[in-house]
Amino acid sequence: MRQRILNLRFRTLVFGLLSSGLFGLQSCDKQDVYRDIDYNRISAIVNDNYNLSIFRAALDRTGMDEYLQEQEGPFTVLVPSDDAFARAGINGTTALKARSSAWIGSTVNYHVLNGNYELSKFPYLINQEVNSRGGKVFVSRWIKGQDTVLAINGARVLLEDIPASNGRIQIINRVLEPYFHETLADAVTADTTTLFAEALRRSGLMETLRGEGPYTLFAPSNHAMRRYGYTSIQQVKEANQGTLRELCEFHIAVDRRFINDYILFIGDTHTGSQRMINTFTATVKLIANANEPGGFSGIRLAAPGNVTDVHVTRQDILAGNGVLHIVDDVLRLTR
């Protein structure tokens, strides 16, 4: 919808009348300036939807709202809903303001793609690489039961291919975290899983995780490593290298796997498997979503040596050559 907006600009000219000592005000010269405003631009559509208010505030904070209004593009913008921001701990625009400008800027850029991507026409493949203004994103289009599912970095697309005059909008159910590390070796080193990171170094597998990949890494938390028996960095450094390599190899899988990928792949039994680089497999069990009948919210892992299932406590930490998940126990081959 286009609306002609009248912009009145008054110019007042003051002339000195020396002969009379009086000042006269010349009447205003009205100039009618018409400017087209396109209410079908990406920015305008986001502004017009109350459940996208937090992303709208993020666009405003970075100046990207004006850019997406003025530029022809085309662009594809991945827009997290307000519920998606709430799941990320950002409950409203006030909470967003507490975030740093750097975080908001990198997050907004990561959600903006140059080009018009019609996701509903993507091939039926998992994790197809597309470049955003902030790095690589991975698009999946897959059939699950009777439904065609679209996902980006494991986040579900709630509404796809909303047309705008300068591109498209995709509404997603999670805020995508930009990745800051090109390799999983750097990502796990920067994380709080210091004991497992030292085990990877000691075993020689850090070099593997610096390779091209892609890989999926299930990294046990420090608490999980302590329960397993490695209570300090020094103890890990003094451990047998072969023993550590056996442990670590059972936590690395070839290929990039977001948690949602397992939900898409696994069939009616709700149980699947993941082969690790040591050729042994861990069992993958889907977790039912209590708020979505027939849906699933995540996965649990099981291995021959584990008495109880292993839970994913943090998921989908993206690196340039793979994905990192943090788990609450060590996957064990034997008891």
TrEMBL record:
Q: Which Pfam families match?
A: Fasciclin
PROSITE patterns linked to this entry:
FAS1, PROKAR_LIPOPROTEIN
Q: Which domain of life is it from?
A: Bacteria
What are the record's GO terms for cellular component? extracellular space
Record-annotated FAS1 domain positions: 39-176, 180-331
- What this protein is called in its record is Uncaracterized surface protein containing fasciclin (FAS1) repeats
Which source organism does the UniProt entry give? Parapedobacter composti
- Lineage, please? Bacteria, Pseudomonadati, Bacteroidota, Sphingobacteriia, Sphingobacteriales
